[in-house]
Amino acid sequence: MNNFLNVLIIAGVSLDLFASMEIEGSMLAKVNKKKLFISTTLITLLQIAFYFGGFCATYFLDKYGSIKNTQMVGDIIATVILYLLGGRLIFKAISRKFIHEHLKESTVKQYVKMIVVASLYTIAAGAACGLLESSVILSLIVIVIASVIVCLSGVYVGMYYGYEGRTIVYITGALLLFIAGTDVLLENVLGLALI
Amino acid sequence: MENVKKNAIDILLSESFKELSKKKPIEKITIKEITNEAGVIRPTFYNHFQDKYELLEWIVKEDLEAPMRVALSQNDFKGGFVNALNKIESEREFYQNAVKLEGQNSFKETFEAAVSRLLVEFMDEQPFSGALQYKWMQKKMIGDMYGGFIAGIVIEWIRLGMKAPKEELAEVTLILLEEPVRL
Fold it and tell me: What is the ipTM of this complex?
């Protein structure tokens, strides 16, 4: 799988995390830097754990499983996963869940709980990348950078600008995942080069 | 100096909130819109209020409860009531939108609580001694009951377009409060 695709997938999933941090940030009067640092570290570690959990599960199944034509099957499943993840973000953009804006003293536990709830989707993204045999080193680097950036920027953007921009964030994330899914479909499944 | 500055921002935010409520329902107003209209940064809001419903509560306390408290301290219920109605009428659009708020943080609930506080503060307990003899009956419960009644009259007046003359409405309210219902 090409590296650019790998980045697209992780970026797409990270934008969901950005929107969640934006909502949390929108309820703060000021940022407790120590809590934010601890939360960012924990969230990054959890993202790595969930991503590689999914990655390893499908990578080893693909390599050592007894399914015939695992390459093709893996690519099809990865495409479906990417489209479903993108569809979920579109649904979130359209549904525009009501948020009661109120002052909140965010705790590390709350941030982490938020990520654990969303972890299923990071596992799914990891599973898709495992099926596509993404580079482990590159995935690790991109996840760390993406998680740190979206955690920090999400909180500050939410605090100063609110969470109204989340619709655009969800749609952008969905587009990245759809582009990645379409590329896998055209290039790997149908044999047409795209990116 | 800190208190004066804090109060100035409270007023700025409340004016911004009232202005926005003329253009859209209160439920749809966001903190960002309130702070943009007021010309302050978004986190400033949370240094003053927990949420927009606390801001609404502040408006009710400042605009309606405080002037009524002054009048009641001079034993002038009718004057205080008319002053409150005058204030409501002068900001007609805001209050007509405010009464549409439903649920836990409604204007009705906020206003009832404000009236109840005033009544508990200024109530002469003697006429209610028969009721207050019971352990479960508290002065606050009486305040809440009458608060609901008075707030209901005012809210209905707002909903019907504020057509009834304010002096007459105040007089009718006093009659209804003072005269017992004969069943």
Answer: 0.79
Q: What contacts A113, CB < 8 A, 6 or more positions away?
A: none
List pLDDT tens digits, range B120-137: 888 877 777 777 778 888
Cβ contact, residue pair B31, A103, below 8 Å: no
How close does chain A come to B110, measured CA to CA in Å? 17
Q: How far is B48 from chain A (nearest CA, A)?
A: 9
B-chain CB neighbours of A31 within 8 Å are none
**B109 phi/psi in degrees, rounded to 5:** -65, -40
Which residues of chain B are within 8 Å of residue A30 when distances are taken between CB atoms? 43
B136-181 pLDDT, tens per residue? 888 888 889 989 999 999 999 999 999 999 999 999 998 888 876 6
Q: Do B43 and A159 touch (CB under 8 A)?
A: yes
Backbone dihedral angles phi then psi of residue A6, each to the nearest 5 degrees: -55, -45
Tokens read off for A173: 């994330």
Residue A96's alpha-carbon distances to A17, A91, A166, B150, in angstroms, are 16, 9, 9, 38
